[in-house]
């Protein structure tokens, strides 16, 4: 009978452990509340933010590259903001995403003078410190990353090399071959995961070189963050990337890596738009 004593407690322990391992599962969208102080209810700062919340979703949908920056008010009640939609989003989705972003962020970061919030189709950042508007770097305190905790099992070393090369090639294309500083990519892997998909994007006001530097900075974190992981993303207000073993893109793939032959050498990027029908997104246990 000794065995009958502990199944329930140990089952609970396992459940607690599993829950702790996936703390972000219900976290979408991802906000990073700021550290630049707070404002009071009904203040001029809040009124300026409310003006932004009306104007920015309208303005961004009339911008051809779905990007907008703006300043409302004067110091010390100045609010500056940046909004960017993903390269494969349309104006309707973009504008709706920003309306939601302003609503959500004011609930989760309610009285913070600065905050970032990240969705699949859009990002929004605002701050009382407008220095980010003239910077080509991500605001470190507003950046975040997401890791899919599932590990690749079949050939991790080759998977890591492939993902590194794919994200690199996607970053290269976004910086140098797209005026919108956006690219999507795809590579073949193996039977466990036939395809790996990627995305990289900068704000379109960056020069190609600035965009590449920004992306290189966050790509350098890949070994630390994503070794063996089947998916991940680093999100910043100036540049971001993501990779997954399922398709999450709404546009034709722009970068295609040829399959790696043998175990040595890196895959050769074969660039140029190709028409690939995106499959429905699956997985994504963030
Ligand atoms: C802010 O204004 C609203 C509506 O006028 C009011 O209900 C609320 O009490 C005010 N809050 C503060 C802190 O003044
Ligand atoms: C929105 O765009 C209009 C026209 O370009 C501009 O006058 C206005 O200042 C913008 N508003 C904001 C909040 O960006
Ligand atoms: C915009 O994109 C959304 C999501 O992909 C899609 O459902 C919608 O039909 C698109 N709207 C237009 C006008 O293309
Ligand atoms: C995945 O791999 C990492 C690093 O090797 C390890 O720490 C982690 O426990 C593994 N996670 C799972 C779910 O297997
Ligand atoms: C990505 O590109 C950088 C700069 O060109 C290079 O140093 C790095 O080795 C590349 N990484 C991979 C995995 O290809
Ligand atoms: C990408 O840009 C580079 C540098 O401008 C150019 O040499 C290359 O041909 C372009 N590739 C594609 C596929 O457009």
Automatic annotation (TrEMBL):
PANTHER family, A to Z: CYSTEINE-RICH REPEAT SECRETORY PROTEIN, GNK2-HOMOLOGOUS DOMAIN-CONTAINING PROTEIN
Keywords: Repeat, Signal
Region Disordered, residue ranges: 260-286
Xref: Gene3D superfamilies: Gnk2 domain, C-X8-C-X2-C motif
Official protein name in the record: Gnk2-homologous domain-containing protein
Signal peptide: 1-27
Domain Gnk2-homologous span(s) in chain numbering: 27-131, 140-248
């Amino acid at each position: 009978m000794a065995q009958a004593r502990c199944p329930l407690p140990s089952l609970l322990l396992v459940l607690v452990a599993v829950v702790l391992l996936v703390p972000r599962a219900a976290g979408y969208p991802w906000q990073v509340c700021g550290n630049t102080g707070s404002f009071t209810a009904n203040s001029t700062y809040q009124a300026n933010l409310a003006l932004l919340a009306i104007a920015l979703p309208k303005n961004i949908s009339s911008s051809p590259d779905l990007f907008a920056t703006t300043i409302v008010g004067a110091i010390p009640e100045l609010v500056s903001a940046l909004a960017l939609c993903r390269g494969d989003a349309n104006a309707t989705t973009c504008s709706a995403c920003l309306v939601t972003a302003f609503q959500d962020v004011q609930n989760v970061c309610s009285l913070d003078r600065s905050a970032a919030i990240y969705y699949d189709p859009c990002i929004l950042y605002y701050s009382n410190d407008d220095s980010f508007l003239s910077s080509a770097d991500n605001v470190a305190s507003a950046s975040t990353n997401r890791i899919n905790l599932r590990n690749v099992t079949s050939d991790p070393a080759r998977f890591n090399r492939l993902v590194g090369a794919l994200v690199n090639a996607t970053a290269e294309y976004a910086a140098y071959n797209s005026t919108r500083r956006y690219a999507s990519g795809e590579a073949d892997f193996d039977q466990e995961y036939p395809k790996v998909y990627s995305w990289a994007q900068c704000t379109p006001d960056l020069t190609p070189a600035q965009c590449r530097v920004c992306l290189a900075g966050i790509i350098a974190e890949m070994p630390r963050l994503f070794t063996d992981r089947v998916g991940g993303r680093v999100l910043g207000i100036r540049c971001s990337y993501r990779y997954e073993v399922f398709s999450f893109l709404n546009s034709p793939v722009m970068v295609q890596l040829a399959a790696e032959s043998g175990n040595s050498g890196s895959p050769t990027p074969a660039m140029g738009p190709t028409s690939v029908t995106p499959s429905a997104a699956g997985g994504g246990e963030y």
